[in-house]
């Protein structure tokens, strides 16, 4: 049984690390937003000038942001074609989740399409990124505070394994409650997949529209970035149920890290390549574009293949698609796959994700480091995440996990790492 509450080992450098991250993450996000629109676009340089306070604060942005959250919450509450059950909780119960994320994406697309055909200036959204990012950050702070207070009244069985150290800064950052809910409305599940992910593709689209207005038509590079990232978001929502077995839902509490990550970091930094392209158009020839498409396709094939194989296996190990794979038995009764994608490396899904991350940056050329920020950040995130997951699996599976590591020695990249 893994140590819980105040006995759980501290992650992210403990309270000091958590405090530093709470300052550094928003600062990095604003740095990226400012540098992307600056002439030199230097990732490691200072932005040319800091924005005046009125460039950060706009009542219009606040209204737009609240409308967006309200709209996505309304889509979440619409009847779902399916209700899925989450993993078993400490008290042996299972929560139920609506599977209607893809429906929310389609409804958003229809609404935006209607708006644009009625004259809505979607491109103007690109002028509001700074104040929108500001209100999203404020929302994340306020929301995390409310979640922290709510968790003070939650029963012990509802608390996350980490995030209950007793240090308020650390617990605020990591999140105390595992699945905070208001009635049947699950805050973490909603934030993980809806406002931020759909917001990201909407911002990308606005950047494409703005580029078309400035240049007469969108560039090939902008099309590729939009297409690849739409595929990624569409895929996440199409396979929404799979998010229920990710570390974020099953292990991490809902605190500042995920609230800020989901609501602010994802839409405003994951759209960095498209932001860069609007201010720094890049020529891209068809043959190079075809090679980049191939890189994205290979990454997607590995990512989807690995994630689907594990989900199918976890749902039903006798499913004919996975029944022939080799496995190791563990003391918990669960099995570990040792052939197929999960016999190649211990995190094949991370490998596919990283290859896609490379494909998203390549359309921006090689003249600047800035569009490669996502690849660099994501490598660090996944290496750290992999180490966290190894710890959790070691605690869960003990000797069987050692045996798996012996049989599958590489973590993410075959023969390298
Ligand atoms: N774009 C982004 O910003 C981010 C994307 N991601 C993506 O999210 C996806 C999910 O990632 P994440 O939640 O970290 O982890 P995984 O989906 O890789 O899940 C890890 C879990 O899978 C199970 N598992 C591990 N090895 C095996 C095996 N051999 N056989 C069967 N089950 C196994 C274990 O859980 P158990 O045994 O309990 O089932 C383990 O804890 C990934 O594709 C990742 O790339 C993640 C973070 C950020
Ligand atoms: C701000 C910090 C640096 C850390 C925040 C991390 C978060 C941004 C990410 C943690 C796990 C995530 C996942 C996705 C998006 C980013 C965050 C929230 C995901 C929804 C992206 C789409 C994928 O298909 C997925 C597998 C559903 C992802 C799940 C994890």
SSE layout:
Layout: H1 14-36, H2 53-56, H3 59-77, E1 83-85, E2 96-98, H4 101-117, H5 129-152, H6 168-174, E3 181-182, E4 185-186, H7 187-193, H8 195-215, H9 220-238, H10 247-250, H11 256-269, H12 272-279, H13 286-315, E5 327-329, E6 335-337, H14 341-344, H15 348-361, H16 373-397, H17 399-407
Antiparallel strand pairs: 1-2, 3-4, 5-6
Helix pairs in contact: 1-5, 1-6, 1-11, 3-5, 5-11, 7-8, 7-11, 8-9, 8-11, 8-12, 9-12, 9-13, 9-15, 13-15, 15-16, 16-17
The structure holds NADPH dihydro-nicotinamide-adenine-dinucleotide phosphate and ligand LPDX5YLU.
Family: Belongs to the ERG4/ERG24 family.
EC number: 1.3.1.70
Membrane topology: Multi-pass membrane protein
Which ions, cofactors or small ligands are bound in this entry?
A: NADPH dihydro-nicotinamide-adenine-dinucleotide phosphate, the ligand CC(C)CCC[C@@H](C)[C@H]1CC=C2C3=C(CC[C@@]21C)[C@@]1(C)CC[C@H](O)C(C)(C)[C@@H]1CC3
Continuous helix count? 17
Amino- and carboxy-terminal Cα gap: 29 Å
Mean pLDDT: 93
Backbone CA Rg: 22 Å
Described by strand count, sense and barrel closure, the largest sheet is:
2 strands, antiparallel
Number of strands: 6
Name the shape in a single word: globular
Q: State the oligomer.
A: single chain
What's the structural domain tally? 2
Helix and strand composition category: mainly alpha
Helix and strand sequence = HHHEEHHHEEHHHHHHHEEHHHH
Q: Helix share of residues?
A: 55-70%
Strand order of the largest sheet: 1-2
Poorly predicted spans = none
Strand content: under 5%
């Amino acid at each position: 049984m893994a140590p819980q509450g105040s006995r759980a080992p501290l992650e992210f450098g403990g309270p000091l690390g958590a405090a530093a991250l709470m300052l550094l993450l928003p600062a990095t996000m604003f740095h990226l937003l400012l540098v992307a629109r600056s002439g030199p676009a230097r990732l490691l340089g200072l932005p040319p000038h800091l924005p005046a306070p009125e460039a950060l604060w706009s009542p219009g942005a606040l209204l737009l942001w609240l409308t967006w959250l309200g709209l996505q919450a309304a889509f979440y509450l619409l009847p779902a074609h399916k209700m899925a059950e989450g993993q078993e909780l400490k008290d042996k119960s299972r929560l139920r989740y609506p599977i209607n994320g893809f429906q929310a994406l389609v409804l958003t697309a229809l609404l935006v399409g209607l708006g644009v055909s009625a004259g809505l200036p979607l491109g103007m959204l690109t002028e509001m990124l700074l104040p929108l990012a500001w209100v999203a950050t404020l929302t994340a702070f306020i929301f995390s505070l409310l979640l922290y207070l709510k968790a003070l009244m939650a029963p012990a069985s509802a608390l996350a394994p980490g995030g209950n150290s007793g240090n308020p800064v650390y617990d605020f950052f990591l999140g105390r409650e595992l699945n905070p809910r208001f009635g049947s409305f699950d805050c973490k599940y909603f934030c993980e997949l809806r406002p931020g992910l759909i917001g990201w593709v909407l911002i990308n689209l606005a950047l494409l529209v703005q580029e078309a207005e400035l240049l007469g038509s969108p560039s090939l590079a902008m099309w590729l970035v939009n297409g690849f990232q739409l595929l990624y978001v569409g895929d996440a929502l199409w396979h929404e149920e799979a998010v229920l077995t990710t570390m974020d839902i099953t292990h991490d509490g809902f605190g500042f890290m995920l609230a800020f990550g989901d609501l602010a970091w994802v839409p405003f930094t994951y759209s960095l390549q498209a932001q860069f392209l609007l201010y720094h158009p890049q020529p891209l020839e068809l043959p190079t574009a075809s090679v980049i498409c191939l890189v994205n396709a290979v990454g997607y094939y590995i990512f989807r293949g690995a994630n689907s194989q594990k989900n199918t296996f976890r749902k039903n190990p006798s499913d004919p698609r996975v029944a022939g794979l080799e496995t190791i038995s563990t003391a918990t009764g669960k099995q570990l796959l040792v052939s197929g994608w999960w016999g190649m490396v211990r995190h094949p899904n991370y490998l596919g994700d990283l290859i896609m991350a490379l494909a998203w940056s390549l359309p921006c050329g090689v003249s600047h480091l800035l569009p490669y920020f996502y690849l660099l950040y994501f490598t660090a995130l996944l290496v750290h995440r992999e180490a966290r997951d190894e710890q959790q699996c070691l605690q869960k599976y003990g000797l069987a996990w050692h045996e798996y590591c012996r049989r599958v020695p590489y973590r993410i990249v075959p023969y390298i790492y």
